[in-house]
Amino acid sequence: MNNLDDEEYLTGYHCDAVYKKQVIPENQGNAFIEAIPDRLNAHKLYEALYSAPRFKGDVSKLDIEDRLALVQQIRKSFWLPLSGHFYRYRQYYNMIKIGYQSRNPYSPSYNRQYALGLDKVFNSGVDEEGRNIAGVNHTAEGFADIGLSGMGKSVTNKRILQLFPQVIHHKSYKGRQLTKAQVVWLHVECPSSKSVSQLSRNFFAAVDKALGSGSNFFEKFGEKAGTIEVLAQRMVKVANQINLGVLLIDEIQKVHRAHSGGDERMIEFITELTNTIGIPVVIVGNLKSLYLFKSSLANSRRAIPDSYVENITDRMVEGELNTNGEKAITEWDDFIEALWEFQYTLSRVPLTEEFKSQMYYHCIGIPDIAVKLFMHVQCQAIVNGGDERITQNLINSVASKSLKLLQPMFERVRRGESAVLIEFENKDIHWTEFNEYFKEAAHRVYVHGKLAQEHERAIQQKNRMSILEDLIAFTSKMSKSIEEAESIAQRVFESSNGMGDLNSMYQHVAKLVMESQETSTRSQTKNKVAQFPKLKKNKGELPLMDISDIRYIVKAGEQKKMSIEESLLDADLIKDPLEFNLL
Q: In what order do the strands lie in the sheet with 309-313?
């Protein structure tokens, strides 16, 4: 399909349109709205969202390895719907239907947009009343889900999206032909390359992934460069063609200001998708993404739809005693009680108020940290042997080691300095015991995904010589001699003692090789300049190299205003630094 096939894209199910009678007059007579399934009630929504480890047997009959494996299943399988998730589902459901109100496939004004041309409609913008030149006043809404890492924002939004069909296939509506595919939702993750251009490419690839074989939007639009305005225009055109219900842009904090043209340019890029053609947009990110809103939203309110909502996700609150000495029940109580059920130690320990308070103290109400800490405590209890009981001393001991880097910050939070949590986004949770295990393991251990990110330095430390060998092999593909390759690779490697960011090291050696070759070329040219007549320089012409040559790839990327990192990533020449084997 395209050169992004290896990327993972969130997908959902396809279905044929079944039209439902609508109570709200604004929703009646609109095939796109009537094809949306009925809203789930609270009970059905809970059943659809809840998930838990499926093991129901007697753990006392299992060996240590099986019980340790069950503990690892908790984080993968456990997910508890909370009150905020029900609100978010209603928000999505209403937003999708309202967004389609101004996009009735049989509306004359809506179809007038196609007659005028979507490019012309987009370039003309909207008038003071919010109408575009086709006379359409779009009803699209949008919201931002911003909050602390570990609160489950991305998982929540993904799970809710997958409750809706991703693609609805229309054939006829009330006796009239209607051969259209309606993409109800699309999930796009911001790229690690931090560029808006790569974000748009991810969008087109996600569209092709959703529609399946035969869709070639990436080939048509994704491989072309352009300004932010042009990229947004292409995305709007395709979103309109596929009748997109809502676009979710996840991990928005990855889009760096320097790559996006500034805070306000990024906000403009997102709001352009909403205002002119009427695409509801949801953006999700951690506290790092607050830079997008800190000044831009305050200074550019006229560009933000009136219906725009900002959701800031805070950590869970621990219940406090009231005047009668009774403790209020909070989401933290519901969460920890549900989590505590999944004990795979030989001795089950009931959850007491003391355990609740102790767990909250160490994780300060962040669910992801609570789950990890609970897993680590169980693993330690099982490895210690004996009756394998979870105790307060064991929780304190594991937390003091596993959360060592976070505890000073958490202590400031306990003193009331909540603003310090923004620093949390710049900290990597360092799970000391697992890192030591990786370094000391005599057998082969494969680490992928998020777990690999959490233990990257431990993995990297054990693989220092393999990293150097890979770095030399990579450099030799660009260099004229193996001696030069070894020299450059060794210099970059030793500058960080082999513990620097791996992608940065690849970029650094590529830059040094290019500089070395340019210096060599200038020297040779200077020595021979008197021997040859001057030739007219062809601007923009690449040197004669094979297209697979890394020098060619980097040079070609420069002409497209791409960084070395973006060029190498685009050509799939930089490996995932986290997928190393521990020997």
A: 185-189, 246-250, 281-285, 142-147, 309-313
C-alpha to C-alpha distance for 444 and 435, rounded to whole angstroms: 14
Place of tokens 């560029």: 195
**Which class would CATH give 14-48+82-313?**
alpha beta
Q: Which helix (H) or strand (E) holds 12?
A: none
91 within 8 A of 308, measured Cβ to Cβ: no
Residue with tokens 């009803």: 139
What is the per-residue pLDDT for 290?
63
Distance in angstroms (rounded) separating the CA atoms of residues 385 and 371: 22
Neighbours of 268 (CB within 10 A): 19
Task: Please give the single-letter amino acid code of residue 197.
Answer: S
For 437, other C-beta atoms within 10 Å of its C-beta total: 15
For 406, 488, 496, 568, the CA distances from 509, given in Å and listed in that order, are 34, 6, 13, 12
Which SS3 state, helix, strand or coil, does residue 576 take?
A: coil
The residue type at 139: T
For residue 474, CA distances in Å to 134, 460, 509 come to 54, 17, 9
Q: How many CB atoms lie within 10 A of CB 68?
A: 16
What span, in angstroms and rounded, lies between the C-alpha atoms of 394 and 381? 8
Planar angle of CA 454, 457, 460, nearest 5 degrees: 125
Contacts 24+ apart (CB under 8 A), 353-356: 353/327, 354/392, 355/390, 355/392, 355/395, 356/318, 356/332
Tokens (6 digits) for 187: 């999930």
β-strands 167-173, 176-183 pairing: antiparallel
Residue type for position 240: N
User: At 88, which amino acid appears?
Assistant: R
Contacts of 502 (CB under 8 A, 6+ apart): 460, 467, 575, 577
Q: What are phi and psi of 310, to 5 degrees?
A: -110, 120
Instruction: Give the chain's largest Cα–Cα span.
Output: 99
Query: What is the rounded distance in angstroms from the CA atom of residue 240 to the CA atom of residue 415?
Result: 51
Nearest to 201 by CA among 210, 191, 211, 192: 191
Residue pair 460/467 in contact by the 8 Å Cβ criterion: yes
**In whole angstroms, how far apart are CA 511 and each of 46, 396, 514, 523, 565?**
53, 48, 5, 18, 10
Can you list the residues of the chain whose pLDDT is less than 70? 1-7, 130, 192-195, 228, 255-277, 290-310, 321-323, 325, 418-466, 496-502, 519-552, 559-561, 563-566, 568-583
The two beta strands, 142-147 and 281-285, are parallel
- Written as one letter, the residue type at 117 is G
According to the model, what pLDDT value does residue 490 have?
83
Residue 543 token pair? 């040197």
Q: Would you give the end-to-end CA distance of the chain in angstroms?
A: 36
Identify the pLDDT of residue 294.
52
The alpha carbon dihedral of 129, 260, 422, 577 has a sign of positive
Burial class (CB in 10 A: 0-12, 13-18, 19+), 264: middle
Three-state SS annotation for 411-456: HHHHCCCHHHHHHHCCCCCCCHHHHHHHHHCCCCEECCHHHHHHCH
Identity of the residue numbered 426: N
